[in-house]
Amino acid sequence: MQNKTTDNMDNNNPTEMFKDSEIITLLGRKSVLSTLKCLEHNGACRYVDIYNTIDVSKGTLYNNLENLVDMKLVIIKLDGRKVIYELSDCGKQILNFINKLTDYYSITNK
């Protein structure tokens, strides 16, 4: 696995931390991937590694999976593989905001 240090990340702005067991569900795999690619392009996250995996719901982001609590990682299953991204504080804020929007629209559209 590649180096997972956060030396190049902006740690000056405190943000709301995700709970260790928190699961962020977005609108689907394409939305998740588009969001991560946009964050990566803007320097808010970076690709770290891929693992093979099973039993992870399609289109679901997992934060702090498998004791990766202090590494600011988000893991998404994509075509049977676990794709790992490392987030800056800005990236975490953006994903948290998207999660709140998703929750809002899922409640109002029922």
TrEMBL record:
UniProt cross-references to Pfam families, sorted A to Z: HxlR
Domain HTH arsR-type: 12-109
InterPro entries: HTH_ArsR_DNA-bd_dom, HTH_HxlR, WH-like_DNA-bd_sf, WH_DNA-bd_sf
Source superkingdom: Archaea
GO molecular function terms attached to this record: DNA-binding transcription factor activity
Segments passing through the bilayer: none
Protein name per Swiss-Prot or TrEMBL: Putative transcriptional regulator, ArsR family
Species of the source: Methanococcus voltae (strain ATCC BAA-1334 / A3)
